[in-house]
Specification:
The complex is a heterodimer of chains A (112) and B (116).
Chain A lengths: L2 E3 L4 E5 L4 E3 L2 E3 L6 E7 L6 E7 L7 E2 L2 E6 L4 E6 L8 E9 L2 E4 L3 E6 L1
Parallel strand pairs in A: 2-12
Antiparallel strand pairs in A: 1-4, 3-9, 5-6, 5-10, 7-8, 8-9, 10-11, 10-12
Chain B lengths: L3 E4 L2 E4 L4 E8 L5 E7 L6 E7 L2 E5 L6 E7 L2 E7 L7 E8 L11 E2 L3 E5 L1
Parallel strand pairs in B: 2-11
Antiparallel strand pairs in B: 1-3, 3-8, 4-5, 4-9, 5-6, 7-8, 9-10, 9-11
Classes of the chains: A mainly beta (112), B mainly beta (116).
Chain lengths: 112, 116
């Protein structure tokens, strides 16, 4: 079974600053997908960004970018120019063989 | 609304009650999922349906009974639950499970279940 580990239960960032969330995963597969999902207080899980394992280029979506290190099995999320609306729980997820596994989540607090 | 609607949003039930959670999607997706979200734990996949057929049952106790009458609707029937079953139950949908689009799940807002 694949496991996804998020070692930071909580992170706090000043508005307009940058925060990086860590994620590591365990797999023997070579072809898979990685995701970051955001869950605000409204509870709606929203896809933030995704990365295909066969692509070496790191994915970016506006203020969100990832640092994908395949050999290290690491997939961190960087939130730049943090905004109050970024406050949420962030989940790292791994998908292979049509199964999606999630980490335990990191709660991000944004200080005004 | 993201296209996946879950009802009810909140549910309180006793251990002897029978209730159901409902999930509905109008995105044209063919795969639907139930996840359980407990505090401080990773989301746990419970069931997967692909084109109305159950393709995954992740060792879920029989007191949880899923039903998928069509690709747009998914139910989770609950009976004789335990207090430890209290959690947020999330429904999600995606394109057919073997298609590339299956990688992107669209989630509902969840049903918060409390078992007394």
């Amino acid at each position: 079974a694949q496991t996804v580990t998020q070692s930071q239960p909580e992170m706090s960032v000043q508005e307009a600053e940058t925060v990086t969330l860590s994620c590591t995963y365990d797999t023997s597969e070579s072809d898979y997908y990685l995701f970051w999902y955001k869950q605000p207080p409204s509870r709606q899980m929203i896809l933030v960004i995704r990365q295909e394992a066969y692509k070496q280029q790191n994915a970016t979506e506006n203020r969100f970018s990832v640092n994908f290190q395949k050999a290290a099995k690491s997939f961190s999320l960087k939130i730049s120019d943090s905004q109050l609306g970024d406050a949420a729980m962030y989940f790292c997820a791994y998908r292979s063989d049509y199964k999606l596994s999630f980490g335990a989540g990191t709660t991000v607090t944004v200080r005004a | 609304e993201t296209g996946v609607t879950q009802t009810p949003r909140h549910l309180v039930m006793g251990m002897t009650n029978k209730k159901s959670l409902k999930c509905e999607q109008h995105l044209g997706h063919n795969a639907m999922y139930w996840y359980k979200q407990s505090a401080k734990k990773p989301l746990e996949l419970m069931f997967v349906y692909n084109f109305k057929e159950q393709t995954e049952n992740n060792s879920v106790p029989s007191r949880f009974s899923p039903e998928c009458p069509n690709s747009s609707h998914l139910f989770l029937h609950l009976h004789t639950l335990q207090p430890e079953d209290s959690a947020l139950y999330l429904c999600a949908s995606s394109q057919g499970q073997v298609s590339p689009g299956a990688n992107v799940l669209t989630f509902g807002a969840g049903s918060r279940l409390t078992v007394l």
